[in-house]
Structure formats: C-alpha cells, structure tokens
Amino acid sequence: MSSFWETYKQAIIYAVIVIGIVVLLRFITKLFHNWLEKRYRRKHPNEEPVTIHLIQKILNALWIVLGIMALTFIFIDKEQYKVATENFNLVLYLGIVAVITLVAVSLVQTWFKRKIKERTAQNEDTTSYKFLRYIAIFGVYFLGGIFILLAFESMRSFAATALGGAGILAVVAGVASQEALSNLVGGLFIIFFKPFKIGDIIKVTDTMVGTVTDITLRHTVIRNYENKMIVIPNAIINKEKLINYDLGERMCCQWIEIGISYDSDVNLAKHIMREECEDHPNLIDNRSELDKYNNVKKVIVRVISLDDSSVTLRAWAWASNFTDAFVMKCDLYESIKKRFENEGIEIPFPHRTLVFKENNPNLIKNKT
Length: 368
What we know:
This protein is α+β, with helices and mostly antiparallel strands. It folds into three domains: 174 residues, no CATH class; 58 residues, SH3 type barrels, CATH 2.30.30; 92 residues, 2-Layer Sandwich (Alpha-Beta Plaits), CATH 3.30.70. It contains twelve helices and eight strands. The chain has a five-stranded antiparallel beta sheet. A hairpin with a 2-residue loop joins strand 1 and strand 2. The longest helix has 42 residues. The protein starts with a helix and ends with a helix. The C terminus is likely disordered.
C-alpha cells in the first residue's frame, strides 16, 4: 500500500486538488446563482429568471468538462501536454465567451425593457425601442459568434474581416438570403418612416385587419378581431397599399349601404336610415359650424346607384375610431332591416325567370 502511495502520490494529490476545485467552483456558482435569482425575483416577481438558470447550467457544465480535461493530464505523456493545454484553454475561452454573451444579452433586454416600460407609462410610442431591441440582441449574438470563431485558426481571417468597419455588413450580406435582407430593410423602413406603429389598427386586405402587436427584424405581427395572429414579412407589407386607421385623425366615416326595391318609397327609406344612424350611441357629429347653421343633416343619406333589381342607398355615419365604426355598422344593418320590415320597405334579392318552350323539337328529341 505504501509503495502504491509513493508511486502515485503526485497523481492522487493532483486529482484531489482538481476535484476539490471543481466542487468549489460549482458551490460558488450556486451561491452566485441564488443571489442573482433573489435579486431578479425581487424586481420581477412574476417572471422566471431563464437567463440566470441558463448561465448556471453552462458554468456547471464548463467546470465539469474542464475538470475532466484536467484529470486527463495524469494519463497522457508529456509530449501531449501542449495539445492538451491548448484544448483546455480553448474550452475555457468558449465557455467564458458564451457566458459573457448571455450576460450582455440579458443586460440589453433589461435596458430596453425598462425604457419601453417608461415610454408606455408616458403614453409615448415604443415601436422604435422594440425594433431596436431585436437589432441590439442580434448584434450581441453576432459579436459573440465572431469571438467564438476567433478561437479557431482556420476561421480567424473570416472573423477578422467581419470585425472590420464595413465587414459586418459584408458578412451579413454574404450569409443572408435576399429575402431575409429585404425583410430586414423593410423593417428599418417601417421604423424610420412610420407608416404604422405598434398599437395601430391597420387594414392590409379585407381578410387582414387588426392591431399591430410587434415589428421584428423579419416580420410584422397583427392581431385580428378573431384574436388570431397574422404574421406578414416586412418585405411584403412594405409593398402593400394599407389603411392605417390611427394615422392622423382617428375619426372614421362608415358607409352604410342597403339596396331597396324599385317599388319601395325612397324618401321613407332614407328617413329610416338617417333616424337609425342618429340614434346609435357611437355616432358623432362631424358637421362644421357652417353646416349646422345651414341645417345640414347629421347623417347624409343619398341614392348612389340604380342597379338591376335594387336602388342602393348609402348613409355616411361618423364614429370616433375604427372599432366603434365597425360595431356601429353591424348594429345599424340589423336595426335598419327591422325598421324596413315594419315600414314595408322591401330589400330585394335576385330573381331568375325560367322559360320552358314545350314545342322545341330539340327538347322533345332529347327527351326521347
């Protein structure tokens, strides 16, 4: 036993020291994690500290991997020490870069989150901050990836070029597809020129109407009135002709169009439509003082077309915003229909007349 100890004394002491250092580092990591978690939960009681947990897992795994690599020095020849030392330093470097990148991303997210919260409390637009947050986070991850590439000799020239002044844009242009770049540029155009912002109600097509909830590097997210999320690439939405109901004046003129039969009383139908519109609580008075002086009606109703089987009437009803206008339109179609039924105003529907020619020889031939 004593001869075994004398033979492997240095190796055993070295292994114990390595294991002790790994255990100590894991213990310190746990203490540091618990301290950070308590501070985070004190500031954000309803949120889970995902980044802090991830950093703890990375550090614990790093200490174990480094410990195993350090223990392998016992079993290798001295000629292999140089290669083993380089691998050890490489793993240590990669672990440190990963942790620093995650910490930097967490700090960026926290800063932007605080700024967004402050601007929201002041009822200011937060679109730019939310979009720039994506760019900043992407930039941090990009730099982290470049520093990781610097660890590999074969990739150093590529990483050095990317870290140059215009090299970052060149690398992005080289690795990204044309569609991805167009979406990124489209997102930048949306932020700079502000055709819409987060919280605006926009209409892209008849089936894509809703509130803008997010603008990312790639796409814009709209929540429609079915509570469904519509994801539209920025390159596409930049090409579309859209309606922004919150750009400038929010008042909205809603058309109420109904067709009546040619036999119905047009004046009575116009009177009913005007009364129903004026009685609706969402209607606002958009008349000027001159219009009021000249006794212009609050709701204008006119005949706009003479169709094949109907006379189309249109009422111009104003509401304070698009949402109120939509609700008003739905209510008015129902109430006007009921009034028309009670007052004898007919809403026509298509009729088709079929003529059967019994003396047609071709028809008789086909029957036989």
